[in-house]
Each structure stands twice: as C-alpha cells, then as structure tokens.
Design brief:
By secondary structure, the chain is an alpha/beta fold. The protein has helices at residues 17-28, 44-49, 77-82, 101-111, 127-138, 152-166, 204-207, 224-231, 239-255, 261-278; strands spanning 3-9, 32-38, 57-60, 74-75, 87-91, 94-98, 119-123, 142-147, 171-174, 182-187, 210-215, 235-238. It folds into 2 domains: 3-100 and 241-278, Rossmann fold (3-Layer(aba) Sandwich), CATH 3.40.50.10860; 103-239, Rossmann fold (3-Layer(aba) Sandwich).
Length: 281
Amino acid sequence: MGKKYGVIGYPIGHTMSPFIQKELFGLCGYDADYGKYAITPESLKEEFSATLRELDGFNITIPHKVAIIDCCDGLDASAAEYGAVNTILRKDGKYYGYNTDAYGFLKGLEFSGIPLCGRVMIYGFGGAARTLITESLKAGCQVFVGTTAELKAQAEPVVAELMKKSGKEIAILTNEEITESFDLFVNATPVGMYPKIGVAPITKEQVELFTYVYDIVYNPTETELLRLAKACGKICGGGLSMLVCQAQQAQIIWYGAEFSREQTAEVIKSAAEELAKEFSK
C-alpha cells in the first residue's frame, strides 16, 4: 500500500501542489497518493488530530503556516528560523515541521541562471519577502526593500526587526526612489497575480535599472513584470521554478528523493502547461 500525502490550506481550490507532487512522485517511481484538504483556521487542531494524522506527510499553505507549529512535536532549523512551517514529516509517530521556502527561492534562482549577489531589491515586506530578505543578507548582498509610499510606514517596523536580527543595514526605497542601478529585482508581492494581471510593481524604465529580474508569482507564468523584463532583454525567472523546487525539497524530506536539473525543467514545463489549461476554462 502506497504512502499518503497532501496539502492543507483555506481556500485551497486552485493549488498546483497536487499536480506538481504527483509529477515528482512519477519521476521517482514512488508509490504515493497526494490530496488537498480545505481546512478552516478554526478546525485546524481538530483536523490535525483526525484527518491529518492519517497522512505520512503534508504541505501547508495560507493561512496555516504559523498556527501549525503548535501541532508539531519538533521543528527543523529552517522552520525555527523563519517562524513558519510549510512541510510536515511524520516519523515514528511524531510530526516534525520544516520550511522549504528559502530552499525553493535559492534553487529557483539557480535554475533560472540568476546569481544572488550585489545590490538586491526585494519588493515587499510580507512573510515571503522576509524569508527572501534574510537569505539575501546571508548571501552577503546589499539589500534594499521596495514598496509604495503608502505602505512605507508599515514596512519600517518589519525592516527594523530584520536589521536587529541580522545586524545589517537594510534601506527602504519607495517606487519614486528607485532611480539607481541594481543587480537583482525580486517581486515578493501578489502584484500581477491572477486575476489582477497586466500590472507590474515597477515601470519599464525602472526594470532597465536591474541586471536580473525574478517574480515569485507563478500564476500567470509570464507576469507583466516578466514581460517587461524580457522586452528589456533581462535574464529573468518566474515563481513556478521556486514552487517546483519547494515541492522537490518536501519529497527529499519525506523519503530522500533525488532530482536532476532535466527533471526539474520537465516538471516546470508540464506545470506551466497545466496552469494555462486550468485557467483557460
């Protein structure tokens, strides 16, 4: 009898996780089933004690990444560092929490041929952005946080906390202040995400200031930001590479899977095709 895995979240309707994870299981010839579970915040602990305990492992998406920590018997260093869990492993009847966001980001950049170095702007200051900012600082980058003038006051305490934690300087720049050259721009906000497509966090003129552009949004696969970047001749990458690499890391955690670069490319391509098909309905 095969293993049972899944993803939990609320809402969970259009998640790509089941498709991607099943593709990865197939590549490894691993006998496993993967489902999706719509679980409200109010019922998380009850469902964990019932439905989720039947699973060998599972992924976690919004809004449970922090609340699930109370259900874990232990945390990996990655989950403890970021204060969030997106992957659970059941081992010897106990449940251990991991965070594969940083791994997905770093491998996604690598897969896209984008180095993490120099002057880096992380646009946004939410949960995903915090992880990306932390990883950029650890890589020795000079980090800037981009945001709108309206949201700058909300960004300031987040940035102050990250500076205190890292002991490194982080400058906040509003859109109007993005006027100098940088190495890498990373969009870590939902700007340009389905269904509000056709908008970008910065202008085409500002895209010209960056050598590399990466957008963690994966739906659509080519966001307006990436369209602008390609039009400017920039090396760029989208969120599907990060999503697939995150999923691969979950399977590495669950059963020691191994994937080649060619297999990664294969799954990213098939996921893009599935995404286009799903949202053309």
